[in-house]
Amino acid sequence: MEYQKPEELVSRQLSISELEDFPGLDWFDVASAVDPAVRSSLERILEAQNGGAISLEQAYTLAHAEGDDLLGLLAAANLLRAELSGNLVTYVVNRNINFTNICFVGCKFCAFSRGPRESDTYFLNPDGVAKKAVEARQIGATEVCIQGGLPHGLPPFYYRDILRAVKNAVPAMHIHAFSPMEIVYGVELTGMPLADYLAMLRDNGLGTLPGTAAEILDDEVREILSRNKLTTAQWIEVIRTAHRIGIRSTSTMMYGHTETPGHWVRQMRLLREIQDETGGFTEFVPLGFVHQNTLLFHQGLARSGPTLAEHLKVHALARLLLAGSINNIQVSWVKLNRHLSQLCLHAGANDYGGTLMEENISREAGATAGQYTSPADFQSLILEMGRVPAERNTTYTRIQLKLPFDDFTTEEMLEPEFA
C-alpha cells in the first residue's frame, strides 16, 4: 500500500519564491531542518551514491516531502548530481522528425494526432524523412529523433525503409527512432517475432530507441490515458529485448496528470530493476504533462499539469532514486520552459536534451517553450547557471566542452562542485 503521510506531520507548503530561490541553498545548511526520517534516507543515498540504499517505504516518504523536507530533497539531489556528474551540463545537436500526425491510437493526453480525413494531416515518405536528415546534418546535427503517429494501412516495412533512406543519405547520422508502441505496431504489420524485427531495424541503421510511450507504467492509469496503447508488460518486453540485442534506449515518465507520487517511485524502481538486468538505459527523462489542449484535461480526468513543486520534486527524486543505476537525468526543456529547465538542472538533472529544430507534439498540446534551442542558446543558459556546457553524442560516449578554456580550469570543469 502506498505511504500516506499522517496529518499531524504534514509540512507547510513552500511559496513560489522559496522554490525559485532554492538553488542558493546547500545541503549542509538545510539538513538540520529536515525531518529525521527523511534526513536519514537522504544521507544513506548520499553516502552510498546509490538510490538502492533505501527501502520502498523510505522512497515513498521522500516522494511526499514538503516544506523544509522538500528543500532538503532538492539540495541533496543537487549535491549528488555534483558528485556524480560534476559541473558539466550536456546537450545533443539533433533534429526531431515526426513523419505523420495521422494516428488511430487515441491517447487522451495527445493533441498532435489527427484522423485520416482531417484537413491538416500529413505523411512523409522515407525520402521525405531523409531530406530532413540531410538538412539537419548541414547545420551540425549528429542525431535525428524519428517518431510519428500510427496510421492504419502503414506499409509493413515502412520503419525499415525510413532507416535505409536516412542511412543512404547521411551514413554518419545516429538514428534515435521508434517508440515501443511503434515497435509493437511494426511487429503486428510484419508478423515477425519481436527480437527478429528489432534486429532487422538495428541492421538497417537503428541506433537507439526512445523510451517513450511509457507515460505511467501502471495498467490502471494507462487505461485512463489511452486504452488502445501497449500494456506495461509489452513496454517492458520491447525495452528488454532491444537492450538484449544491443539497442540502447532512453527511459521516461509522464507526470502531472492522474498519477500519484507512489507511481513515480514504483516506476523509477522498475527502471532500476531493468537497468540492473540490461544496462541499456542511457538516461531518464521526466516529461511534465502539458494539459492545455488535451481531452484528458478537458474531460476532467487529469489535473492541470504539474505544480512547480512537482516539477522540482520529480527531477530530484529521479537523481536520488536512480543514482548508481541511471546517472543521466535530462530535462525536457520543450515541456518546461527555459527558466524552469534551469531550476530542474539545479534539482538533480545534468542534461539539457536536444536542440530539436522542430517539435510538434508538446507544442500542439499547449507548450510555449518553442521548437528549437540552438547550441549557442544552450551554452548561454548553462553558463548563466555557473555550469560548463558540453556537446555530447546520443549515448554520452563522446563529450566536447563548449567554452573558452580561460573561463574554467580543467579541474573546475570535471570535479564535483562540492568536493
Structural class: alpha/beta
- As a percent range, the share of strand residues is 5-15%
Average of per-residue pLDDT values: 89
Shape: globular
Main beta-sheet strand count, sense and barrel state: 6 strands, parallel
Please mark out the parts with pLDDT under 50 across 5 or more consecutive residues, or reply none: 1-9, 359-369
**SSE ordering:** HHHHHEEHEHEHHEHHEHEHHHEHHEEH
What is the CATH fold-level name of the largest domain? Answer: TIM Barrel
Question: Strands across the major sheet, in which order?
Answer: 2-3-4-5-6-7
Helical segment count: 18
CATH superfamily of the largest domain: Aldolase class I
**Beta strands, count:** 10
Question: How many domains make up the coordinates?
Answer: 2
CATH class assignment of the largest domain: Alpha Beta
For the terminal residues, how far apart are their CA atoms?
Answer: 39 Å
List the helices and strands and how they pair.
Elements: H1 16-20, H2 27-30, H3 36-48, H4 56-63, H5 67-85, E1 88-92, E2 94-98, H6 126-138, E3 143-147, H7 158-169, E4 174-177, H8 180-190, H9 194-203, E5 206-209, H10 219-225, H11 232-244, E6 248-255, H12 261-278, E7 281-288, H13 295-298, H14 308-322, H15 338-346, E8 351-354, H16 361-365, H17 375-384, E9 388-392, E10 399-401, H18 410-414
Parallel strand pairs: 1-8, 1-9, 2-3, 3-4, 4-5, 5-6, 6-7
Antiparallel strand pairs: 9-10
Helix pairs in contact: 3-4, 3-5, 4-12, 5-14, 6-7, 8-11, 12-14, 14-15
